[in-house]
Amino acid sequence: MSKFAAVIFSTLNPKFLAIVRAFKNTSGKITAQHIGGGSRRHYRIIDFKRKKDNIPAKVASIEYDPNRSARIALLHYVDGEKRYILAPDKLQVGQTVMSGNKVEPEIGNCMTLKNIPLGLDIHNIELRVGQGGQLVRSAGGVAKLLAKEGNYAHIVLPSGEVRKVFDGCRATIGQLGNLDHSNIRLGKAGRNRWKGIRPRVRGVAQNPVAHPLGGGEGRSGGGRHPCSRTGLLAKGGKTRKKKAISNRLIIRRRRIGARGNL
Question: Please, which of 162, 182, 194, 214 could form a disulfide with 208 given CB 3.0 to 4.6 Å?
Fold first, then answer.
């Protein structure tokens, strides 16, 4: 921190330095519903770009990350640098991984889509070159490389959507670990509170000032189609922009109401 910044922080009123809780702004208005409290978390900086090419790294440990559902792996590079990456399934401590265009397509290695053989499982997929992985980053996530056409690769995503991605973008080989994450039973409401998730009140049980379905005498039905607090339709209402630029990159739409099977 610079001397100028230190002076500014020292002159601030203490209330501006307090931790913001329950996702309220300075006027006390709730800006994010059903979020607040929970255990404090240290954020782990994850290397989604995998730009350290042709330098081998050894997996030192597989660790828990409170900020995501997938596990993370601590890498020790031969030049002394340490980085975290998303841990694929079957990645073992002591294993060596590497990124680059001339590496072997093995679990944990990162390479461009043009160099990945067809049919392999991949994750942490870039949408733009050099931007870092954005697709398929949660526990158990896996996509599959179907085909290559021109400068684009065809990828089937976990939702069942088939999408074209520029073949200069990078992806990591393998399926993400912690496959049983979706089978976890919390057991009690307190575990949700530890995660920072507060109770969710039904819209029809709220006041008319707080929700479009609120108000009425007795147990009313709301008087309109189910919707969110801001009026977005629930139960299948389309919210995607009809003129989105990325529409031309979608070959097959995702399956509605169920996860896609690869």
Answer: 214
Query: Which CATH fold topology does 17-173 show?
Result: OB fold (Dihydrolipoamide Acetyltransferase, E2P) (2.40.50)
- Amino acid sitting at position 21: R
State pLDDT tens for residues 46-63: 999 999 999 999 999 999
By DSSP bridging, strand 133-135 and strand 72-77 are unpaired
CA distance 211 to 224: 12
Is 185 strand, coil or helix? coil
Angle 123-128-129 from CA coordinates, rounded to 5° = 90
Distance CA 173, CA 50 (A): 12
Instruction: State the Cα–Cα distance between residues 180 and 184, nearest whole angstrom.
Output: 7
Contact 221, 209 (CB under 8 A): no
pTM of the model: 0.82
Q: Which amino acid does the sequence have at 194?
A: W
Which are the contacts of 205, defined by CB distance < 8 A and separation ≥ 6? 214
* Number of Cβ within a 10 Å radius of residue 200: 9
Tokens of 11: 């002159």
Span 170-205, pLDDT tens digits = 999 999 999 999 999 999 999 999 999 999 999 999
